[in-house]
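Incident review: delayed structure delivery

Summary: a single-chain prediction request sat in the queue longer than the usual turnaround. Root cause was a stuck worker, restarted by the on-call engineer. No data loss occurred. The affected request and its eventual output are reproduced below so the record is complete for anyone auditing the incident later.

Affected input:
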Amino acid sequence: MQSRILRFMVIGVVFMPQFLFAQKRISVLLETVGVMAVQGVYLTYMSIGAAADGNSKKTYSDEMTIKLMSEFIRIAQVAKAQLKKLISTKAVVGDDVAFVRDLGITYKLLIDEATGYNDYLKNKNDKDSNVKIEKLNEYLDNYTKNRKKAWKKIRKLHGGSN
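Output delivered after worker restart:
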């Protein structure tokens, strides 16, 4: 019996540091991925805003802005799908699940923001003036509303204030 206890203690002493080191590495890895994920939503947010500003100042043509926004949308959709996969495979647990969900929600807001601006650009030259003003305002409201919501989420994700 004592030899079993002694063996168990030796195994514990030998493998415990490796286990603790592995836990520390995983913790650092998750923290790093989290920081980079927040950076991703922040840079997407800034890119969408810069493209919209560039278009409003006539630095970017409507066609170029639509291409840029479409690319931001596509990248955000891929990121959102990957975050969903991360949750569904249970690769994250505990508080990390809520963090990853918030990232996914933020990407959805960014997608809706860029879509709103694209819809505005695609329809602003429409000849049907009866519907035009109301619809254009709706598209711009969609852009603005989702931009504000995304900013609040991004500030929360990186621990800042609104």
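Verification: The chain has one domain: 31-157.
Action items: add queue-age alerting; document worker restart procedure.
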